[in-house]
Amino acid sequence: MKKETINLNIIISLLIFFVFSILSIYTTISFLKPSLENLYLKQLIFYILGFLITIFITYKGFDLLKKYHFLIFIGLNILLLFLLIFGYPVNGSKCWLFIGPISFQPSELMKISLIISSAMIIRNFKKEDWNMKREFKLILKLFILTLIPSILTFLEPDTGVVIIYFLIFLTMLILTDLSKKWYLIASLILVFLGSSLALLYFLKRDLFMSLIGVSLFYRLDRILNWKNASGFQLKNSLIAISSSGLTGFGFNKNIIYFPEPQTDFIFTTIVANFGFLGAIFLIFTILVFDTSILRLSLKKINLEDKYITLGIFVMLFYGQIQNIGMTLGLLPITGIPLPFISYGGTSLLSYLFIVGVILNINKSRFKYRN
Hints:
Elements: H1 3-26, H2 39-67, H3 69-86, E1 97-99, E2 102-104, H4 106-126, H5 132-154, H6 159-176, H7 180-203, H8 205-212, H9 214-224, H10 232-242, H11 266-297, H12 303-327, H13 345-369
Helix pairs in contact: 1-2, 1-11, 1-13, 2-13, 3-4, 3-5, 4-5, 4-6, 4-12, 4-13, 5-6, 6-12, 7-8, 8-9, 10-11, 11-12
């Protein structure tokens, strides 16, 4: 796949995401409070700002990110800690940092920082000879790197983002091609911990709650017991999807209400407006976009860029599967937005940020090859 083909696939896909996002958010006006009726205009502004960020990262900013990756990582952790101490709760969570009229989620930016910092650590590790001791140090470094923001984000609380942090951690470990002994040890530890927690959860719930706390118990219970959930949001989402037909109810004619139609359940909004055909077209576009990133990771590029590209691919793919899956009742509702489509300034800007990273890596790989 040529450089121009990768760029073209990504840019065309991004423009399609843009159209779906703005139109779908616009159709949710009738379901939102009067104060939220201009969300589609805000999303338009975020897209414009995001495109500018994409251009900057493509041609200039990515090298600075790699150079100062650890300082950025420390700064974001300080912001997460600041949120816990001084943050203002919104819907019971301290996820948003408010600076005058501007608000953003440091945890969204942390996902990118974690990918880049992990990739840089692995690159330095790969430069020297391997042995079990050095591999253990690498695993420990990556685990601590992941654990710190995970604890801070979990306490907000935002379990969905924590899952993504550890998914990035596991992805990096698998790609690093460590000694098989470590994978065997990790598997045994996971089986032991998983079995122990499962036994306590199902047989000794009082002890389980006393060990991990009531708040964590109910969050885990919500995830583990999602198949038995009969919430209003999921029920109406399934009704809207199943009754939309090939072409939907018609643009801006959705007659079935479900909470968070502009964020968590934006895919249901798309199906209601554009039907099964619109959903298939969007999923096809997502696959083209993701495949372009995956193919880039298989090209001859810098080692750290390869890890960054694969980390981005896994993060996006998980977010897409999780968001679409939860609207269909196939996966638990975790509050993860649909990348590039759901309303949200910080999440959209962070995703457009990584588009700049991908385009920069694609641009630089020819210089690297030469």
